[in-house]
Specification:
Blueprint: E1 5-8, H1 18-33, E2 37-40, H2 52-65, H3 85-90, H4 93-103, E3 107-110, H5 114-126, H6 142-150, E4 156-159, E5 166-171, E6 175-180, E7 188-190, H7 198-208, E8 213-217, H8 224-234, E9 240-244, E10 247-248, H9 264-269, H10 274-282, H11 297-303, E11 314-315, H12 318-330, H13 334-345, H14 359-369, H15 378-383, H16 395-403, H17 408-421, H18 430-444, H19 449-460, H20 468-492
Parallel strand pairs: 1-2, 8-9, 10-11
Antiparallel strand pairs: 3-4, 4-7, 5-6
Helix pairs in contact: 1-11, 7-8, 10-12, 13-14, 14-20, 16-19, 17-19, 17-20, 18-20, 19-20
C-alpha cells in the first residue's frame, strides 16, 4: 500500500478564506490520521491576480492555525520541488508533458480567437446544446498549422477529449458519478503564452508529487472528469477523489462576505482561538457516530476519516462558532487566557491601549471575568474600567442607582459613609468587604442591594460586572475610596 500523500493547493489571489481552511484542515487531519504526508503547493498560474503578498498571507494563516506542512515552501524535497507552479513552469515541467500529448495526438494546437470561441458557445446555447468549443482546429493538417504559425498566430493547446462514452468518478464521499464525454469540450491545457491551465497543471503536479488522494470542495467536481481524462492519456495511476460538501451561509447561499468574515485572519483579529476555528470547521461536513461537538486537535487527528464526511451542504453558523470559542476559552486557565490575550494584541490596533495597564491587575481581572469571555477581544470591554483614569459612567446606571427618587437618598448615605469607613477598614479582602456591606445594610435597615449597587456604579460606572467585592479588592482601598468620593462630588453635591 502506498503511503498517503495529500495536498492543499491554494491560489494566491487573496486571503485564505474559511472554505479553503476547511479543505486544508481535512487534508491535514487525513494525513495525520493515516501517518502520511501533507503537502502545501502554491498554484500561482493566475498571472493577473496572483501576488506574493497573498502567498505570504496564506502561509501566515496556515502557520497561525498550526496546519504545518511536511513539504512545501521552506520545506522542499528535491524529488518533488519546486512547490510553486510558476517555478515549475520555468523549469519546463508542463511544456514537457504538453509536448508528449501533442506527440500522442491527444492534444492539438488551436488558433481560434477568444472572440471566435465565445461566438461558438453562444451559437450552441441558442441551439440548446452544451456551450463548448466546437473543435474547429481539432483536425488541422500539419501544413495548415504551419501556415497559421507563419502568420504569427500563437496557439493555445487543447486536450482531445473523447467524443463519446462516459467517464465514471468513484468518489469516496459521493459514490459513483457519471459524466457524458459529449458534454465535455476540448478544453485548453496551455495558454498561448505557455502558462498551463489549472486542470492540466494540477494533474501533472499531483502525479509527479505522487498524491494518493485528492480531497477538496465539491465546486471541483466539474473539473474532475477533465482531469481524469488527462491521467488516462498519460497512463498515470488515478488518485482517489473525495469531494466535500459546500459551505453555505444561513440564507442558503454559498458562503460569502455578506455572511460575515470569510478570511480566517479576520477571525484572528476578532479574538477567536485557532483551536475553536479548527474544531468548528471540522464539524462542517464531518461528524462522529456519537455526535461529539467539542474536540481537541489530537482527538480530531485520531478520529477523522473520509467515510464520515457527508455530501449534504453544511451551514456556517457564526453563533455556534462564537459559542464554541467561549467554550475553548473557558477550558483554559485564566493565566493561559491572559497569555493568549497579550499575544492577540500584536495582531490588532490595541497594543498601545494597554501599554500603561498594570499586568498583575489585568491577570486578576481576567480571573474574575473568565466565564464571560467569548472572544479575546471581549477582554478589553470587560476589564477596561480597572485602568481608566476617570470612571466612564453609564447613563442608565447613574439614572437608576444615583438619581431616581427611589434610590438617591440611600445611595448618598451609602457612598458618604463608605468613603470614611472603607478608608479605615484594616482588611480589604473580598470576604471582609462583603461582611462590611452586609453589616452596613443591617445597621441602616436597608436591603443589601441598596449598598451593593451604589458601590458598584461609583467604582466601575456600570451595573453589570464581575463579583463586586473581588473587584473592590483588586482596586484596593485608596482607589476605591477615591472613586467613591468622585461619584459623590459629581452626582450628589
Amino acid at each position: 500500500m502506498r503511503k498517503v500523500r495529500v495536498r492543499f493547493a491554494p491560489s494566491p489571489t487573496g486571503d485564505l478564506h474559511i472554505g479553503g481552511v476547511r479543505t486544508a484542515l481535512f487534508n491535514w487531519l487525513f494525513a495525520k490520521n493515516q501517518k502520511g504526508d501533507f503537502v502545501l503547493r502554491v498554484e500561482d498560474t493566475d498571472e493577473v491576480r496572483s501576488t506574493e503578498s497573498s502567498t505570504q498571507v496564506i502561509i501566515e494563516a496556515m502557520n497561525w492555525l498550526g496546519l504545518t506542512w511536511d513539504e512545501g515552501p521552506g520545506k522542499e524535497l528535491e524529488k518533488y520541488a519546486p512547490y510553486y507552479q510558476m517555478q515549475r513552469k520555468e523549469h519546463g515541467v508542463y511544456q514537457k508533458y504538453v509536448d508528449e500529448l501533442l506527440t500522442k495526438d491527444t492534444a492539438y494546437k488551436c488558433f481560434c480567437s477568444a472572440q471566435a470561441v465565445e461566438e461558438m458557445r453562444k451559437k450552441a446555447q441558442a441551439n440548446k446544446l452544451p456551450p463548448k468549443y466546437d473543435g474547429t482546429c481539432r483536425n488541422l493538417t500539419c501544413e495548415q498549422i504551419k501556415q497559421k504559425e507563419q502568420q504569427g498566430l500563437k496557439p493555445v493547446i487543447r486536450f482531445k477529449t473523447p467524443q463519446d462514452g462516459k467517464i465514471i468518478l468513484k468518489d469516496l464521499i459521493r459514490g459513483e458519478v457519471e459524466f457524458d464525454n459529449m458534454l465535455l469540450d476540448d478544453f485548453v491545457i496551455m495558454k498561448a503564452n505557455g502558462v498551463p491551465t489549472y486542470n492540466f497543471a494540477c494533474v501533472v503536479d499531483d502525479s509527479l508529487m505522487e498524491m494518493t488522494h485528492i480531497l477538496r470542495g465539491d465546486d471541483h467536481i466539474s473539473n474532475t472528469p477533465r482531469q481524469m481524462h488527462i491521467y488516462k492519456a498519460f497512463g498515470w495511476t488515478l488518485p482517489e477523489f473525495a469531494h466535500t460538501a459546500m459551505i453555505l451561509g444561513s440564507d442558503g447561499a454559498r458562503l460569502s462576505k455578506r455572511h460575515g468574515h470569510t478570511s480566517v485572519l479576520e477571525y484572528r483579529t476578532e479574538g477567536y482561538l485557532k483551536e475553536a476555528i479548527l474544531n468548528y470547521l471540522a464539524l462542517l461536513g464531518w461528524s462522529t457516530q456519537d455526535s461529539q461537538q467539542i474536540f481537541t486537535l489530537e482527538e480530531l487527528k485520531q478520529k477523522f476519516s473520509i467515510d464520515r464526511c457527508g455530501s449534504s451542504a453544511a451551514t456556517f453558523d457564526p453563533a455556534k462558532l462564537l459559542w464554541l470559542n467561549g467554550e475553548k476559552i473557558r477550558s483554559k486557565t485564566p493565566l493561559e487566557v491572559y497569555e493568549l490575550f497579550i499575544d492577540w494584541l500584536k495582531y490588532t490596533d490595541n497594543e498601545n491601549l494597554i501599554r500603561g495597564w498594570d499586568k498583575e491587575v489585568l491577570k486578576k481581572a481576567i480571573v474574575l471575568e473568565h466565564d464571560k469571555i467569548k472572544t479575546l477581544k471581549d477582554i478589553l470591554s470587560l476589564v477596561d474600567f480597572f485602568f481608566a483614569e476617570e470612571v466612564n459612567y453609564d447613563g442608565s446606571a447613574v439614572e437608576k442607582v444615583f438619581l431616581s427618587e427611589k434610590s438617591k437618598d440611600s445611595a448618598k448615605i451609602v457612598l458618604t459613609e463608605s468613603a470614611i469607613r472603607l478608608k479605615n477598614l484594616s482588611n480589604f479582602s473580598a470576604e471582609a468587604l462583603e461582611k462590611y456591606a452586609r453589616d452596613f445594610a443591617a445597621e441602616k435597615n436597608i436591603k443589601t442591594g441598596q449598598v451593593f449597587h451604589p458601590l458598584r456604579v461609583a467604582v466601575s460606572g456600570r451595573t453589570q460586572g464581575p463579583s463586586l467585592f473581588h473587584m473592590l479588592e483588586i482596586f484596593g482601598s485608596d482607589e476605591t475610596v477615591k472613586r467613591i468620593k468622585e461619584a459623590l462630588i459629581k452626582f450628589f453635591n
